[in-house]
Design a protein that fits this description.
The chain is of the alpha+beta class. The protein has helices at residues 20-41, 104-113, 121-137, 146-166, 169-176, 250-256, and strands at 47-49, 51-52, 57-66, 69-73, 78-82, 89-90, 95-100, 181-184, 189-192, 194-195, 219-220, 226-227, 232-237, 242-247, 261-266, 271-281, 287-293, 305-312, 318-321, 326-334, 339-340, 347-355, 358-365, 370-371, 375-379, 391-393, 400-402, 406-414, 421-424, 427-430, 434-437, 450-452.
Length: 466
């Protein structure tokens, strides 16, 4: 029997034929990958569209509130119960509070208030308004005031719940045989149950220590408190006129010295208004601003200090971001050396050039970036035609000027043409984010121009794709 032969199959390897097409394709692929990676990793150049309009500057202050306040003291000791909530208006003869020496009336009122009495819609609105103002006023710097707010709200809830029972006071007292003193108002005004040492202060009495809130203390009466004879029982504000005083720095005096009214906005109350302004001298010889108001006194009846901002008049111009502004050096060329080219649209200077035939003068068209009363500002880049040491000649004269002195300008990079062009600006006003710059400047910006948002990312003449 014939023996079978083992057949071994060997796979034929086709040789790799590298041709010019494959090499070109590989180069293009690598270039595309590199370009894509570079594009994704580089900082994106963003632009900003110049808009018409200024910026509003605001300055924050803490002011001291002074009102026409009259403090009324208790004629005898006892438990006090109020008829009116804080900030409500009393007319002449209105019942303000009762004094009960035994405390029987206070117990009756509390018991009657707990028999399922509900707060009125007006009381709920007042509580909601107080809570909203407190939430808006809180921040990290004055978070400790939350305990004062809590105390005020608790007192207000207790008072509102007992006021409905006060309407039945005579009936309750007769049933219990309680004896108490009723106190009525001798003047009309808004009542308050908070007391400090500022009630009698006059504007000319203020001093730096008056604004030290760390040393400030305030007491507040509430229904059910036991008070001593001669102690403050309530105070009444007899006028809607009130004032806010605040310390002035030298800069403030310079800024507001000629003003007779200021636009202010209250931080806590979302309220903005214009009010008369004057500068007074305090007891310590310091300068203090005084704002006089005739409305909204009730909204601040429980406050002695208030935070507000003064809105300074805005400059009229073009609004641009601070990040878009850069600074650049330029050659300074006297105004009288400017020459008009053969084409009426060309301006430039007559430059001396030297060759084997001697000295001659040629006209070099030049971009003017800015002009003041003495000089034109031109680019220091040699590609623009001039370098330090070159001489230029005054038209129709033999006078020469050697280029060298420089000056700097603030400006932005305009990209209307797809590449960066420096445009000079004149700053009129600023805040933490924006500048207001002068409009209609020669060689300057216009509304709707596109400028680089961050000038530190580009340089003059750089090509950009928007």
């Amino acid at each position: 029997m014939a023996k079978k032969k083992n057949k071994k199959i060997i796979r034929y390897r086709r040789p790799l034929n590298i041709n010019v097409g494959m090499i070109i394709f590989a180069i293009i692929f690598i270039y595309l990958m590199f370009s894509a990676t570079t594009y994704l990793n580089r900082e994106k150049i963003q632009f900003y569209e110049v808009v018409d309009g200024g910026i509003v500057n605001t300055r924050m202050y803490t002011g001291l509130i002074l009102r026409q306040e009259q403090v009324r003291t208790a004629e005898q000791s006892g438990y006090i119960n109020y008829y009116l909530p804080e900030g409500k208006r009393a007319s002449v003869g209105s019942r303000i509070y009762t004094l009960d020496e035994s405390g029987t009336l206070d117990t009756l009122l509390k018991e009657n208030a707990q028999e399922g009495q509900t707060l009125s819609d007006e009381s709920l609105r007042d509580l909601r308004s107080q809570l909203t103002s407190m939430v808006m006023a809180l921040d990290d710097e004055n978070f400790g005031r939350i305990y004062d707010y809590r105390y005020s709200l608790e007192s207000a809830v207790m008072e509102y719940s007992s006021f409905s029972a006060m309407d039945q006071l005579d009936e309750l007292a007769q049933e219990a045989g309680a004896v108490f003193q009723q106190v009525r108002s001798d003047v009309s005004g808004v009542v308050s149950y908070s007391f400090d040492s500022y009630e009698a202060m006059q504007p000319e009495s203020v001093e730096a220590a008056s604004f030290d809130q760390t040393a400030y203390s305030r007491t507040r009466r509430k229904s059910g408190d036991l008070i001593e004879s001669g102690s403050p029982a309530y105070k009444i504000v007899t006028s809607e006129n009130w004032s806010i005083l605040f310390p002035l720095t030298d800069e403030d005096r310079e800024l507001f010295g000629q003003e007779t009214s200021l636009q202010i906005a209250f931080r806590d109350a979302s309220l903005e208004l214009s009010c008369p302004f004057s500068i007074i001298t305090g007891a310590d010889g310091g300068s203090y601003g005084k704002l006089d108001l005739t409305k909204y006194m009730v909204e601040f009846i429980s406050d002695r200090f208030v935070e507000f901002e003064i809105k300074v008049d805005q400059a009229d111009g073009l609004k641009i971001p601070i990040s878009a502004v850069t600074e650049k050096n330029f050659f300074l060329i006297p105004l009288e050396y400017l020459e008009q080219g053969g084409d009426s649209s060309d301006t430039g200077f007559l430059k001396e050039v030297y060759d084997e035939n001697g000295t001659s003068v040629v006209f070099v068209p030049t971009t003017i970036y800015y002009a003041d009363e003495e000089y034109y500002y031109i680019d220091t880049d040699e590609e623009e035609g001039f370098k330090a040491g070159d001489y230029i000649v005054k038209p129709e004269s033999s006078e020469r000027y050697q280029i060298g002195p420089t000056g700097s300008l603030k400006g932005v990079y305009n990209i209307n043409r797809g590449y960066t062009v420096f445009k000079q600006i004149e700053i009129l006003d600023s805040n933490s984010e924006y500048y207001t710059v002068r409009r209609n400047m020669d060689y300057g910006l216009s509304v709707y121009d596109h400028i680089v948002l961050d000038a530190s990312l580009v340089e003059e003449g750089q090509l950009l794709y928007q």
